[in-house]
Amino acid sequence: MTDVLIQILSGVSRGMVLFIVASGLTLIFGVLRVANFAHGSFYMVAAFVTYTVTRMAGGGMPGFLASLVIAPLCVAALGAAIEMLLLRRIQHRDHFYQLILTFAITLIVADGVKMIWGRDYRSVPRPQLLEGSISIFGSPFPSYYVLLIVIGLVIALALRLMLERTRFGKTLRAAVADGEMVGALGVNVPLLYTGVFTLGAWLAGLGGALAAPVGSIAIGIDNSIIIESFAVVIIGGVGSVSGALVGALVIGVLQAIGIMVAPRLAIAFIFIALCAVLLLRPQGLLGRRA
C-alpha cells in the first residue's frame, strides 16, 4: 500500500506540472478561442532555455532559481510577439486558419531549437538541496516532487484569486461571455488578448522549466505535452482553470497507476478517460454547456 501511495503521489506531482502548462492553454482557448498547437513549443523552448541558464550559472540553487525566472519570461516574450504579429492579423478569420498558423509555428520553433541546441538529449541537474527525499511511511519520496506539488497548488490558488478578485480577472470572464460587449465598454480588447496569450505562454514556460530537471530534454517533448494538455482541457472543461487542475490530476494519477498495472499500456489510460468524459459529459467535468 505504501508503494501504491508513493506512485500516486508521483502521479500528482506530474499532474501539477501538466496543470501549470494546461492552465495556460485553457485560458487562451477560453478567451481567444484559439486552439494553440504552439503551446507545446513554448514548453519545449523553456526546457532548453532552462538547460542553458543552469549551465551558464554553474548549476546549483542560484542557477535553478534563475532559470525559473528567465525561461518563462523568454517564452512569454515569444508568445506576445506571436500574438501581436501573427494571430492578431487573422483573429476574425475562420478557426481553421488559426489551427494552420499555430501548427506552422510548431514546425518553425522545432527547426529553430535544432539550430540552436541540436538534436542531442540534454539534462538539467537538480539543485543539491532538492536531490534528497522525504520519508512517507518509511518509503522515500523525492523532495523535488514535493516542490512540484507545492508550486502547482500555489499557481492554482493564484490563478483563482486573479480570476475572481482582480479587475483583470473580471474583465477576462466578461470577455469569455461577450468580447464585443467588453470592447463597447471601452476595454482595449486587443491588449487584453495579448495579455492573456502572454500569460498562457508564461505558464507553459514555467511548466517547461519545472519539468526540465525531471527527465531528458529533446526535440519532440512538445508533441507529448500538447496531447496531454488538450486531454486535460477536454476532461476538465474548456475555459475552466479549476477543471484543468482536476483533469491534470486525473491524468497524472491514471498514468502512475497505469505504469504499475500495465506499463506498456500506461498511455492508453489517458485516452480511455478522455473517451469516457466525451461520451458521458462532453462539456468536461467542471465545464458548462455552450
TrEMBL record:
It is found in: Cell membrane. GO terms for biological process: amino acid transport. GO terms for cellular component: plasma membrane. InterPro entries: ABC_transp_permease, BCAA_transport_permease. It is a multi-pass membrane protein. The keyword Transport applies. It holds the Pfam family BPD_transp_2. Keywords: Amino-acid transport, Cell membrane, Membrane, Transmembrane, Transmembrane helix, Transport. GO terms for molecular function: transmembrane transporter activity. The chain crosses the membrane at residues 15-35, 42-58, 64-87, 99-117, 144-163, 230-251, 257-280. Belongs to the binding-protein-dependent transport system permease family. LivHM subfamily. This is Branched-chain amino acid ABC transporter permease. It comes from Alsobacter metallidurans.
